[in-house]
Amino acid sequence: TEMENKVLLSFAFYSTILILKMYVVAIITGQVRLRKKAFANPEDALRNGGLQYYREDPDVERCRRAHRNDMENIFPFLFLGAIYSLLEPSPAVARVHFFIFCAGRIVHTVAYLLRLKAPTRSVAYSVAQLPCFSMALQILLAAAPYW
């Protein structure tokens, strides 16, 4: 069964870590909104002090960019990792792919939110892309005879 598939279990583990990380970034964004009193909707601003707080804030926007970047990268990883898991790769090799992506995304988020010195964030982004390109290439090679 699928639950006996070590690759799929590893993928499920790292994917869940990444989804939880995305929830944490969303919570941080909300907390920064409250602290900075910068609300995206007039009804939220009215509830928290008045329409003058219906505005943008650079710190909130930084959190939002980090979250958007996660969506642009983690969602494709979820697709690639799921299909790659079905190709029956070596469990150890697959685990390395998933770990590198997960670690890279965590470092990317930390670098983004804490404003770490460049090029920390871009290096983390680039490192996390390597396993995605590897998985995509392996999927294409496996599927090529059937196109």
From TrEMBL:
GO terms for molecular function: glutathione transferase activity; oxidoreductase activity; prostaglandin-E synthase activity. Keywords: Cytoplasm, Fatty acid biosynthesis, Fatty acid metabolism, Isomerase, Lipid biosynthesis, Lipid metabolism, Membrane, Oxidoreductase, Prostaglandin biosynthesis, Prostaglandin metabolism, Transferase, Transmembrane, Transmembrane helix. Gene3D superfamilies: Membrane associated eicosanoid/glutathione metabolism-like domain. Its EC number is 2.5.1.18, 5.3.99.3. It is found in: Cytoplasm, Perinuclear region; Membrane. It catalyses: prostaglandin H2 = prostaglandin E2; (5S)-hydroperoxy-(6E,8Z,11Z,14Z)-eicosatetraenoate + 2 glutathione = (5S)-hydroxy-(6E,8Z,11Z,14Z)-eicosatetraenoate + glutathione disulfide + H2O; 2-glyceryl-prostaglandin H2 = 2-glyceryl-prostaglandin E2; prostaglandin G2 = (15S)-15-hydroperoxy-prostaglandin E2. The keyword Lipid metabolism applies. The keyword DNA repair does not apply. GO terms for biological process: prostaglandin biosynthetic process. Its cofactor is glutathione. Pathway: Lipid metabolism; prostaglandin biosynthesis. One of its GO terms (cellular component) is membrane. It is a multi-pass membrane protein. InterPro entries: MAPEG-like_dom_sf, Membr-assoc_MAPEG, MGST1-like. The chain crosses the membrane at residues 12-30, 93-114, 123-144. Pfam families: MAPEG (PF01124). Terminal enzyme of the cyclooxygenase (COX)-2-mediated prostaglandin E2 (PGE2) biosynthetic pathway. Catalyzes the glutathione-dependent oxidoreduction of prostaglandin endoperoxide H2 (PGH2) to prostaglandin E2 (PGE2) in response to inflammatory stimuli. Plays a key role in inflammation response, fever and pain. Also catalyzes the oxidoreduction of endocannabinoids into prostaglandin glycerol esters and PGG2 into 15-hydroperoxy-PGE2. Belongs to the MAPEG family. This is Prostaglandin E synthase. It comes from Anseranas semipalmata (Magpie goose). The lineage of its organism: Eukaryota, Metazoa, Chordata, Craniata, Vertebrata.
